[in-house]
Amino acid sequence: MSSADQNSSNTPRRALAMTSMSDEDYCNTYWPQLREAVDRLLQGPPSPPHTGPVIQFEPMYSAAYKCVCQQYSEALYNDLTSHINKHFLKVAEDMQDVDDLHLIDSYYSLIHRVMYSLDGIIPIFTYLNRVYVETKLSSTLRTELQKIFCTAVIDPVIARLLALIKHITEAKPFYVAPHVLASLVKNLYKLRPAYAQTYPQVFCLQCVSTNSQTTLWRRRNSRPP
């Protein structure tokens, strides 16, 4: 792309950024639009037969970009993290009554849904991440949102969850599909590596047992009835 083309493609965004924004504009127009997009993404992947994007990305990216350019970075970050924290606290409340029989499958599904949601939310706030989170907070938006999720939802059950994983891996290796256990442990580490330092036996045990269990699981389930 030529420099002229680049300048042309950047013109609408620059013009948008130069348009003044009042507190009323931010509170009544821009943040509500962004909050609605975040809420849609927090619902997780759409159910079939839905196809196509959950939200329109470009308008939401532009709205967040303008908020940052108009000196609303801190307000946007605080509103975003506060709103997501409230959502995750509600999720944690809903998960309180899950029994051991369904605990692993429930958190396996939940974590996959949350990771899908974050993968959709974070790109909208790329400019906020670059200008405010990385510069002012010396962090990343993904790190901060994962921290909120872990603190609200995972930390209260992590000891129980990993104890159950350890028990199943050692005593009931086919009680849960090995790929489910492996994915759950992998994603827990991805969300908060400190879990592996606090519970090293579970993470090491799961790494050692996964390959052999998966092979046996496949053989067992491929047998004719």
From TrEMBL:
Q: Which GO terms describe its biological process?
A: G1/S transition of mitotic cell cycle; ubiquitin-dependent protein catabolic process
**Taking every annotated instance into account, which residue ranges of this chain make up the domain Cullin N-terminal?**
31-203
Q: Cite the InterPro entries for this sequence.
A: CACUL1, Cullin_N, Cullin_repeat-like_dom_sf
GO terms (molecular function) for this protein are: protein kinase binding; ubiquitin protein ligase binding
Annotated Gene3D superfamilies: Cullin Repeats
Entry similarity comment: Belongs to the cullin family.
How is this protein named in the record?
A: Cullin N-terminal domain-containing protein
